[in-house]
C-alpha cells in the first residue's frame, strides 16, 4: 500500500511526485495518457518509491486508507472529470487535494458536492513553477482543518523553507487556498508588468543594451528589490540566443499570453468592490500586447515629437528603481486588501501575516519586500496604505515615480501598471475626489439621488429646471 496518490503527470505533477517521494513517501502515479507515465518512470524516476498505474481502479486500490490523492491536472473540466472517475472507488473519509490553479468558485462547489459523499477536499494553491514543485514550492491549502491535518506533515516536508519556517500553512476555510493563489497570480502579473515597463524606459529612453539592463537588474536584485522575478529578469536580459548570438529577449515576440488567473483576480476585485488598479491594468497590458498588427499599423500613422534634453543616466536609473519599488509595494498592498475583504465576505478566516510568510520562499512572488509587509500588516489595517510606515516608504519614492512617469509620457512609452500604482496612491490619499460631479450626473439623468456634505439625508434635484 502506498502513502499517497498523484494524478496528472505533466510538468508540475512529475516534479511534485519526485519531491514527495524524496521525502520518504511511497507514491502511486496515474496519468490519462499512458505514454506520459511510461516516459516519466523511465526517464525521471530512479530510486524513488514511485509506482505507475494505468487504470483508476488499481490506482485507488494501491493506496493506504484513508486515501490521499493529489490532482495536478489542468484547471476546469479536467478536475471534474477526474473526480467523477475516482468517486466509484473512494470511501468515506478519503481526501482529494486539488493542487492546480482552479477557480475558487469551482473549488467551493466541489467541496460541497464531495462533503455530501463524505469525501474530504482541499483546494491547494501551488506556486514555484516546475523548479519549486521539485525543490520546495509555496503551498496554500484551504478547506477544512480536519482535511489539512490529514496531510499536514507531508505538506510541511515538501514545502520550501525560509528563516520564518515552512512555506505552507492552513490558509483557511472552503476555497481560501485557491483564492489566495489566484490573488498571488494577480500580484505576479502586476510585478511582471512593472518590471517590463521599467525595462521599456531603459531601452527606449536611456538606449541601454539588454546586457547593460541585465547588469542593472542584477545590482537591484542584490538590494531592496531582491526577488525571484527580479532574478529571472536579469538572467533573461543577459541570455544570448544559441542561433544568432543576440540577446534572446530581443528576438521574442511582444505578445504576452495569459491563462486566466490574472483576469479572475481583476473580476473578483470588481465583484468585491476592492480597488486593485495595478493588478487590473497588468491584465489589460497583456491583452493590449496581443493586437500586434494594429499596433504596427498605428505606429506608422502617428507622429511623435521626442524631447531632446540630455538626461543623467544614473539619476534616471535610480528613479526607475524607486518607481519599481513603489509599484511592487502598491501591487502587494492591493492584493492583500482584496484577500482581507474576501476573508470577511466568504468567512475564510485567513491570517494575512501567515499568507505573506508562506510567500517568502518557493513561490514566484517571493521578495525581500515581504519582510517589510509582514512588519506592517495587522488584521485592523488590511489596507496597508494606512500604516504610517507605508506612507513614509511611498512618500520617499513619490518624486521618483512622478519623474519616471513624466519621462515615459514625454517619450510615448506606456506605463500602465506604474501609472496605476501612482494614481491608486493619489486616489486613496485624496480627501476630495471628483465623485461629487459623478453623483450629480447620475442624479441628473437617472434620479439616482445623492448625499450632501452639509446635511444628512438622501437628496434628488430636478436639474432640468436650472
Ligand atoms: P497542465 O495544466 O498543462 O495539465 C496537463 C495535465 O492535465 C496532464 O497530466 C493531462 O493529461 C491532464 N488532463 C487534461 Br489536460 N485533461 C484531463 C482529463 N480530462 N482527465 C485527466 N487528466 C487530464 O499541466 P501543468 O502545467 O503540470 O499544471 C498542472 C496544474 O498545476 C494546472 O492546474 C496548472 O494551472 C497548475 N500550476 C502550474 C504551474 C506551472 O508552472 N506550470 C504552476 C503552478 C500551478 P494528459 O497527459 O493525458 O493530457
TrEMBL record:
Keyword Oxidoreductase: yes
Reactions catalysed, as given in the entry: 6-phospho-D-gluconate + NADP(+) = D-ribulose 5-phosphate + CO2 + NADPH
EC number: 1.1.1.44
Active site: 181, 188
A GO term for molecular function: NADP binding
Signal peptide: none
Pathway membership: Carbohydrate degradation; pentose phosphate pathway; D-ribulose 5-phosphate from D-glucose 6-phosphate (oxidative stage): step 3/3
GO terms under biological process: D-gluconate metabolic process; pentose-phosphate shunt
Binding site for NADP(+): 8-13, 31-33, 73-75, 101
InterPro entries, alphabetized: 6-PGluconate_DH-like_C_sf, 6PGD_dom2, 6PGDH_C, 6PGDH_Gnd/GntZ, 6PGDH_NADP-bd, 6PGdom_BS, NAD(P)-bd_dom_sf, Pgluconate_DH
UniProt function note: Catalyzes the oxidative decarboxylation of 6-phosphogluconate to ribulose 5-phosphate and CO(2), with concomitant reduction of NADP to NADPH.
Subunit structure of this chain's protein: Homodimer.
Family recorded in the similarity comment: Belongs to the 6-phosphogluconate dehydrogenase family.
Protein name as it appears in the record: 6-phosphogluconate dehydrogenase, decarboxylating
Amino acid at each position: 500500500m502506498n502513502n499517497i496518490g498523484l494524478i496528472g503527470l505533466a510538468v508540475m505533477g512529475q516534479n511534485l511526485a519526485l519531491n514527495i517521494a524524496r521525502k520518504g513517501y511511497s507514491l502511486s502515479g496515474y496519468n490519462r495518457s499512458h505514454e506520459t507515465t511510461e516516459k516519466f518512470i523511465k526517464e525521471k524516476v530512479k530510486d524513488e518509491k514511485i509506482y505507475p498505474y494505468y487504470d483508476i481502479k488499481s490506482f485507488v486500490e494501491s493506496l493506504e486508507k484513508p486515501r490521499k490523492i493529489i490532482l495536478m491536472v489542468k484547471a476546469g473540466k479536467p478536475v471534474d472529470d477526474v473526480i467523477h472517475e475516482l468517486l466509484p472507488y473512494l470511501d468515506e473519509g478519503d481526501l482529494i487535494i486539488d493542487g492546480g490553479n482552479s477557480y475558487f468558485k469551482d473549488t467551493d462547489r466541489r467541496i460541497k458536492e464531495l462533503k455530501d459523499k463524505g469525501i474530504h477536499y482541499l483546494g491547494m494553491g501551488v506556486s514555484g513553477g516546475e523548479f519549486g514543485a521539485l525543490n520546495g514550492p509555496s503551498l496554500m491549502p484551504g478547506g477544512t482543518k480536519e482535511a489539512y491535518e490529514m496531510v499536514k506533515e507531508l505538506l510541511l516536508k515538501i514545502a520550501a523553507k525560509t528563516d520564518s519556517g515552512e512555506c505552507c500553512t492552513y490558509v483557511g476555510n472552503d476555497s481560501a487556498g485557491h483564492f489566495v493563489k489566484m490573488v498571488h497570480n494577480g500580484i505576479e502579473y502586476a510585478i511582471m508588468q512593472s518590471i517590463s515597463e521599467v525595462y521599456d524606459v531603459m531601452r527606449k529612453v536611456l538606449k541601454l543594451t539588454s546586457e547593460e539592463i541585465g547588469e542593472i537588474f542584477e545590482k537591484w536584485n542584490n538590494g531592496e528589490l531582491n526577488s525571484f522575478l527580479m532574478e529571472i529578469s536579469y538572467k533573461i536580459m543577459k541570455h544570448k540566443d544559441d542561433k544568432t548570438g543576440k540577446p534572446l529577449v530581443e528576438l521574442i515576440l511582444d505578445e504576452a499570453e495569459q491563462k486566466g488567473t490574472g483576469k479572475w483576480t481583476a473580476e473578483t476585485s470588481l465583484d468585491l468592490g476592492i480597488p486593485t488598479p495595478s493588478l487590473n491594468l497588468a491584465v489589460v497590458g497583456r491583452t493590449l500586447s496581443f493586437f500586434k498588427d494594429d499596433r504596427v499599423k498605428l505606429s506608422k500613422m502617428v507622429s511623435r515629437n521626442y524631447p531632446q534634453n540630455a538626461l543623467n543616466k544614473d539619476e534616471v536609473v535610480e528613479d526607475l528603481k524607486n518607481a519599481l519599488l513603489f509599484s511592487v509595494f502598491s501591487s502587494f498592498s492591493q492584493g492583500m486588501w482584496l484577500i482581507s475583504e474576501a476573508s470577511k465576505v466568504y468567512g475564510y478566516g485567513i491570517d494575512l501575516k501567515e499568507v505573506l510568510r508562506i510567500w517568502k520562499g518557493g513561490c514566484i512572488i517571493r521578495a525581500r519586500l515581504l519582510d517589510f509587509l509582514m512588519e506592517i500588516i495587522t488584521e485592523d489595517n488590511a489596507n496597508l496604505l494606512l500604516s504610517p510606515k507605508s506612507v513614509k516608504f511611498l512618500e520617499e519614492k513619490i518624486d521618483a515615480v512622478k519623474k519616471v512617469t513624466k519621462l515615459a509620457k514625454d517619450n510615448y512609452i506606456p506605463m500602465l501598471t506604474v501609472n496605476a500604482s501612482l494614481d491608486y496612491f493619489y486616489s486613496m490619499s485624496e480627501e476630495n475626489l471628483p465623485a461629487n460631479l459623478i453623483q450629480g450626473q447620475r442624479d441628473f439623468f437617472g434620479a439616482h439621488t445623492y448625499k450632501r456634505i452639509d446635511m444628512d439625508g438622501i437628496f434628488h434635484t430636478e436639474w432640468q429646471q436650472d
